[in-house]
Each structure stands twice: as C-alpha cells, then as structure tokens.
Amino acid sequence: MSGFFDKLPEISSKKQAPAEKTVFDPYAFLNLRPEPQTAEDRFKEAKELLSAESNTAIQYLKAAAEEEHAASLDLLGMLYATGQLLEKDPKRAADLFRKAAVLGETSAKFHLAMALREGFGVRRNLEESFAWLRVAAKEKSPEAMFALAEAYDQGLGVEKNAEIAETFFSQAALKGESRAIMRMVRLTSEGTHLNPKLCLHWLFKGAAVKIPVCLLAVGRYWLETTPKNPSRGLGFLEEGALTEDPDCLLELGFFWSSGRFAPTDIVAAIVYCHLASTFGSWKAAQKLSELRTLAQREQLMEAAGIAAFPSSQLVVQETIKRRNHGA
Predict the structure, then answer these.
(1) Is the link from the previous residue into 196 a cis peptide, with omega within 30 of 0?
(2) How does pLDDT run across 220-270, given as a tens digit for each residue?
(3) Closest to 219 (Cα-Cα) out of 203, 231, 236
(4) pLDDT mean across residues, the chain
(5) How many Å apart are CA 118 and CA 136, to the nearest integer?
(6) Residue 32 pLDDT
(7) Contact status, residue 69 vs residue 40, Cβ threshold 8 Å
(8) pLDDT (mean) for 94-122
C-alpha cells in the first residue's frame, strides 16, 4: 500500500517548452548570475533552478539549510523523501522535517506529522503525529486540516469523532484542498445530505482550484442550465482540457462537432477527440473515426498540424488561440 510520500507530484517537474522564442539571457550563457547572499535568497534561487540547474539548486538548498533556514530544510527533506534529484533517504528526510518544524515552518509540521503517521524514516507515533497536525491546522494549512479530519474520522492518534471530522473536512475544502472539496461534493450530491445548491457551490469551488471533474461539471452547467452561457461553459471545459482531462477533451470534441452552442468546427473537434483518445477515452476514439469521415482533406491537414505540437498543453493552447482569432 502506497503512503503519502509515494503519491506526491514531481517537485522538480520540467517546465513546459515556451511557444515563442525566449529572450537571450547573458547571465545564464556566461554563468554570471549574481551569487545569492542570504539564506532566503538561496532558497528562492534554488526553487527557480530546481528543473533547469538541479545541482546548483541543491547546493543553494544545502547551504541555506546549514544556516537553519526552515523552508530550505523542509524542501530538502521533500527531495530526500521522494527521491527526486537526491537519493531517497526517509530517515534523513524525517530529521530535516523535524528541524524545520521546530523552527516554525508550517509545511514541515505537516510533513513531519505524515512521516510519524506512516513510520516514514521515524518510529510510527500516531499521538505525536496528531499533535503536529493540530499545530499545522491552526496555522491554516489546508493539507493539515484534511489530515486532521482523517485522524478524527479514523481514530488516528485521537478518539474517533465524526462531527469534528466533518468540521475539519469542511474547513479544508473552504481552503481549497482538492480531496476535501470532492468529499463535500459527494456528501451533498447523494443520500440524506442531498443538497443540489450546496453541491453546486462545492463544484464551483473545485473548478476554482482546477479539479478536472469539477471543471467538467461546471462547464456542463453553463451549457445546459437556463439561461445558458455557452462562452462561459466553453471556458471551463478548456481549463479542464489544459489539465489533460480526457472527459473535458471529449466534451470539447462534442461541443465543436454538434453545432448546438457555436458554429461547427470540425478541425477543433478532431483535435480534441484525438487528444482524448490518446489519454484512453474509447468514446473519443469512436467519435474521432466518425469525424475523419466527415472532414475535408484541408481540415484533416490543419488538425494534424495542430496535433503535431510537442505537448498536449501546447496543442490545447494553439486550438484555443485559433478560436480566439476567429478561425
């Protein structure tokens, strides 16, 4: 069973290639970048360089950590915890989280609490984990609020209390914690807690933090609810497409092929269905086959040109740009 530190997104994810040529940077070319003078400056520079110049970034982080810079200790701990850029070392990670937590770093308090909950690099201690979660939650950490709600819900280091758990789930959702928002959506969409108006509130909240299923639901809401607002619905669906969500991509394929909300655009429909099919949507594959039989050669060629962009996000961005230019 995977733990908290196995499910984290890439800390040092590669930055998306720019669509336009970047401005020449003589500092980077000649290696004349000014050396950061303070621990805080080293930390900020390290975050900027994690993807492009990871060795330099790690040097800056370690130097700042030596000066007991709490945020640097925490980030360094995360690199050791996840095995990104540094060899995975749970014990070293837990030690760094504890140092940063004692120095007052809120995110480190949460990370230490999760390490203690799972016995990650440290002896498992649910009571101490709960204590650190309470502190981090008081400091308004949405992740800590959610984990504290889980503790009350499951009895992790504290006696079970469903009422308190729901309070913290709700607080975490209000702070934008995705899992908490989805819990509130489910809670208000079924059973004895069914409340369509409140469910819609949480769906909009989820859309605001780019949860794909919420973007899809809100997009459909604006397309189908009276009075309809197709342009607003389209915007939410395009936000979902930018997250590479196959359902939002497929919905856009139907949007542009149906002619219900805007003039039919076979090129856009083909592009979106192609992307959705590459992410595993069999419905999109079926629709794509149908669209190809309807399209003219010039439309197929134009769609192929857009789909040839090096990343799915660039493909979506180019399709949106094409729409904005009235193609």
Answers:
(1) no
(2) 999 999 889 999 999 999 999 999 999 999 999 999 999 999 999 999 999
(3) 236
(4) 91
(5) 17
(6) 57
(7) yes
(8) 98
CA distance 109 to 100: 8
Orientation of helix 246-258 relative to helix 212-224, angle to 10°: 20
Q: What does the alpha-carbon distance between residue 109 and residue 102 come to, in Å, rounded to a whole number?
A: 8
Compute how many other C-beta atoms are within 10 angstroms of the C-beta atom of residue 14: 8
Structure tokens at 169: 């789930």
Give the position of tokens 């014990």. 91
Which pLDDT belongs to residue 13?
Answer: 52
pLDDT at 16 over 80: no
Angle (deg, nearest 10), helices 162-174 and 178-188? 120
Q: Which of 198, 202, 152, 154 is nearest to 179 (CA)?
A: 202
Gyration radius from the chain CA atoms: 24
Rounded to whole angstroms, how far apart are CA atoms 50 and 14?
A: 9
Instruction: Write out pLDDT tens, residues 49-73.
Output: 998 889 999 999 999 999 999 999 9
- How many Cβ atoms from other residues are within 10 Å of residue 78's Cβ? 19
Is residue 272 within 8 Å of residue 241, measured between CB atoms?
yes
At residue 208, φ and ψ (nearest 5 deg) are -65, -25
Digit-coded pLDDT (tens) for 198-215: 999 999 999 999 999 999
168: Cβ–Cβ under 8 A, 6 or more apart, which residues? 137, 145, 146, 148, 149, 152
For residue 198 the two structure tokens come to: 């409140």
Go through 133-169 and write b for each residue having 16 or more CB atoms within 10 A of its CB, e for each that does not: bbbbbeeebbbbbbbbbbbbbeebbbeeeeebbbebb
Query: What distance in Å separates the CA atoms of residue 67 and residue 103, rounded to the nearest whole number?
Result: 12
Whose structure tokens read 């669209």? 291
Average pLDDT over residues 13-24: 44
Residue type, 261: F
> In one letter, which amino acid is 201?
H
* DSSP state at residue 33: P
